[in-house]
Design a protein that fits this description.
Elements lengths: L6 H4 L7 H10 L2 H18 L36 H37 L1 H15 L3 H12 L3 H27 L3 H8 L4 H37 L11 H8 L8 H27 L5
Helix pairs in contact: 2-11, 3-4, 3-11, 4-5, 4-7, 4-9, 4-11, 5-7, 6-7, 7-9, 9-10, 9-11, 10-11
Length: 292
């Protein structure tokens, strides 16, 4: 007699779901995990700032002006005796909030415009493309500074300025991805059976362009954090006495010889959080790449 063949054991195993494959690729990347840990650390610090046992970010101690790092003040104090560690922790809220909110503004404005340009084509594409090219003619940071100066100095206006300056990146990305998806067979099939415009965009186009949008948004957060620090350094972002890493660097430049720690720690924080988002974005790009 011929032994029965168990189809479950002899058949080729099914490939793992796409979500599981993406997580496995992300988990196997040491740099991506490092970036995720760095970003998570700063997020936790920013969220727990009110609960941490540090002085208030605006509390002054006139007996400890520009005091070097010590047990009482691990990161030292600034020019009016405020605890640098406390201002670093609270400043993380401003930097991360500016990075996330400004990129959210850019995504909410840029992605719909890019999808419309790639989906409708014709004069709609021409108008949106020329508008995008006009914005891209100015360097990102210069455009953000100009918009922030026009809107007025505040963290809210800085986030709006950064978001509008980053919007062209997402318009071009969404347009290119939409045009690519429109050439797929399943889109042609959906069009043949009479799927409407909203159904086509919501069911077939948008879900397929989300992965590259997520990757680009993660990388753009790093750029937005640098832009916020630059605007605060110039006096166009977070206003004193509220803490901001960029504003702290602006003050510290006057005391580099007497109190170098005032510039050292905010600079390291900006470097680390930007590095974290860049590593995380690279890891997400590799994990979400459908070609692997």
């Amino acid at each position: 007699m011929t032994a029965a063949v168990d189809p479950q054991t002899d058949a080729d195993p099914l490939p793992p779901p796409r979500r599981n494959r993406a997580w496995e690729k992300f988990r196997r990347s040491p740099s991506a995990l490092l970036g995720g840990v760095i970003v998570l650390f700063f997020l936790i610090v920013a969220l727990l700032a009110p609960l941490l046992p540090v002085p208030g970010p605006t509390e002054t101690d006139w007996s400890a002006v520009r005091q070097a790092p010590s047990a009482a003040h691990p990161f030292g104090t600034d020019e009016i005796g405020r605890d640098v560690l406390s201002r670093m922790i609270w400043g993380a809220q401003a930097s991360l909030l500016a990075g996330v909110v400004s990129v959210l503004i850019a995504v909410l404005l840029g992605v719909p415009l890019g999808m419309l340009a790639g989906y409708l084509r014709g004069w709609t594409d021409a108008v949106i493309s020329r508008f995008t090219e006009a914005l891209l003619a100015a360097p990102f940071l210069i455009l953000a500074i100009a918009l922030a100066a026009f809107l007025g100095p505040s963290l809210t206006n800085a986030m709006i300025a950064i978001g509008l300056s980053a919007m062209p990146i997402f318009i071009r990305l969404a347009r290119a991805q939409t045009m690519t998806v429109m050439t797929e067979d399943y889109v042609e099939s959906a069009r043949a059976v009479g799927i409407g415009h909203l159904g086509m965009i919501g069911r077939y186009i948008l879900p397929n362009i989300i992965p590259p949008i997520i990757v680009q948004a993660t990388l753009t957060i790093a750029t937005a954090i640098i832009a916020e620090a630059s605007l605060s350094f110039l006096g166009l972002g977070q206003q004193p006495p509220a803490p901001s890493w960029g504003a702290m660097l602006n003050v510290a430049k006057n005391f580099l010889e007497q109190a170098p720690w005032m510039a050292l720690y905010p600079g390291i924080a900006i470097f680390l959080v930007v590095l974290g988002f860049n590593l995380l974005g690279d890891g997400l790009r590799d994990a979400l790449d459908p070609r692997d």
